[in-house]
Specification:
This protein is an alpha/beta fold. Helices cover 39% and strands 21% of the residues. It has twelve helices and 13 strands.
Length: 333
Amino acid sequence: MRIGLLGAGRMGSLHAAALTAADGVGELVIADADPGRAAILAEAVGARPARSTGEVFTSAGVDAVVIATASASHTGLITRAARAGLPAFCEKPIALDLAGTIAALREVEAAGTLLQIGFQRRFDAGYLAAREALRSGRLGRVHTIRCVTSDAAPPPADFLPLSGGLFRDCLVHDFDAVRWLTGREVTEVYARGANGGADFFRQAGDVDTAAAVLTLDDGTLVTATATRYNGAGYDVRTELSGERDQWVVGLAERAPLTSAEPDGPGAPPHPWADFRERFADAYRAELAAFVRAARGLAGNPCPGAEGLRALHVAEACEVSRREDRPVRLADVG
């Protein structure tokens, strides 16, 4: 099949490599707001450049599209793909707010097309194993879940106003992972944020460090923390604590951790630098799954509605942070 890749930036480059290696992809057509950037990436991976995004939809003859453009453009491109009858994969978020997300999902529903949202942790080997352990009952009753997402360095200042903030951009992955791991919904949140780093976080109305306590519908407690300043390296971990056993996702050789114990492990020589290194295999698996779904060989592993539910939790956390109070999800959106 012929795939149209929209966006030739950081995520687009990552997905271009995965798509060219995926079974069933005969040709990749790459478009970007900067045609020169699309041409450079296309040459690097052996793809065909498009002169514009519009060309992908009108004359490139694509069978599906992968959306890896700036977040603000996602809603419009999802709508355009749906109206063209094309299966679409879109990096999160569908939109930066609930209303925009719902509007895009209504377009997809009306068209009857496939929309897969990009939550790559669902395709990571560690998360898959932990989900199986939890669902099989091996851990017993899970009473506590702890999530950590820490960037090694902050993003550029001009990214922040377009990101949606730390809860929507970063912790939304943890919110989705918790729902997917447990099969439970979040009912209430209490969130706090802090700024100890660069002023541009505060100027954008964002925070550089955050913590949230989530209550699931079965009473399980979840803590989720995130920061943009983790100089030791990129760190993503999820701990599942049950009455019978305790499992940790992300506790591996490259995890940027140093034990304080005399006989404990020291800092790894090559910690993960960023999400692209940490989840390289998961991104490839995610795109391969999309190609199979778009070809009608498998179901949709992460429908767009999952993006709405994770964003709903992030929205509640933002309200909680601003108003310094617990917030029930039923009262948001």
